[in-house]
Structures are given as C-alpha cells and as structure tokens.
Amino acid sequence: MNNPTRIYCSSCGAILDFEINREYIFCKYCGSKNRLEHEAMRTNINVGNINITAKTDLDNLVSYTKYLIGTQQYGKADEVLSAIMLSGCDDYRVYICKTMIDLNTGNDRSLFYAMEKLKSLVYTQHDNEITHAIEELMAYKGYEGITVLHVATFNEKYDIVKFCVEHGSDVNAICWAAEVTPISIMFMPLPEDFQKIDGTTFRDKNTVKIIRNYLMNHGATDKWRISHDLF
To answer: pTM of the entire structure?
Structure first.
C-alpha cells in the first residue's frame, strides 16, 4: 500500500481537510486555494486515521462514507450517499452504507428501501462479493445494538426477516439495555401516535405469529416468555 499523502496549505502551512475528487482544496484557516497537482494526491489522502487509496471516484466515496459512519458523522455520510445515488449509481456498497446509517438514525423507511435494493441485486447478479457484504451487514449493530433483523421484525416485514436469516442474522441478537431480541421487540407496547412504515398503528396478529414461529424454527428463543393473547 502506498503511503498516504498529507496535504498542507501553500500559504499558511495548515493541514488541509480531505475533499472528494477535487482539483483544488481551500484552506479553512486562511482561505487559500491549493491545487492538487496529480492524481495520486486526489486518491491517496489521509483522513484522520483512515488511509484512502482507492483508484476510482466511487471507491473513494464509499471509503469516505465508511469513515464518516465510523466516526458517527451520520448526517454527512448520508449527504455523500445521496449525491452518489442522484448520479445514478446502483452499487451494492451504497445500500450497505445506507442501511448502516439508518440503523443508527432510526430511518426505517429508508432502511427498507436499501434492503429491497440489496435483495434485488443478490437475486439478479448472483455475485459472491455482494452476498458476503450482506452477511457482514447482518452482523452489524447500530444504535444500542439494534440489527436489521430487529427492525424487520418490529415492522412485521416477513420477507426481509427471511432474507436476514438466510444471510446469517443472529436470531437471538439483543439490543438496548433491556436486552430486546428480534422476537420480543414485536411485543413492545406502541405509543398511541406511533405508526409503522405501512401506516398502521397496531400489530397484525397473524403476521407476528408467523414471524415468531419462523424465528423459533431457526433457533430463536422466546427469552422473555411473554404471555400474549396472540397465542
């Protein structure tokens, strides 16, 4: 791997902030315009403790987005992804990153859009690299440990639940201080003004039962042993 390039302002000597695919970088301290003289300077730049050495614009953007997610700059990461998607890019890594952001910010509607795109790419491209990336995503934990499977069961999205389990989701993963599992999250009381992404404010008993049985058939344990009239 090449050594990362550290860019200094030609006027005041300050270390310059990283910017994606730019011919120039403006110094935030003195405002001077600094030209990046060659391609290596634009693709091999040190961002904090992350070395970005990708050869293409998309690789750069994905690497930068992952850095932002890792440093909990979710709003900025979302802006980068929005720009990528507006350009017409349909790369699986974009939807992987989008799901990770949504697991930390609670944007369920956006998360399911990204998951549907990943499902489509898996079934149409049959690419092992995509499948492996999704398996890694299934192990990813967002805010207070929440996983894609938690969000899918909470919103009673049976097709996404199956997709998650088929790609290695931990059916007994816990989130929050109360150690909520993908099964028990379906039994949490909903606020009166709460709406799931389909607009409903109440549980569909049949769907909840199907999801619960499916998860238990795949190794889930009903840890809370909740007594409920659904069963």
So the answer is: 0.74
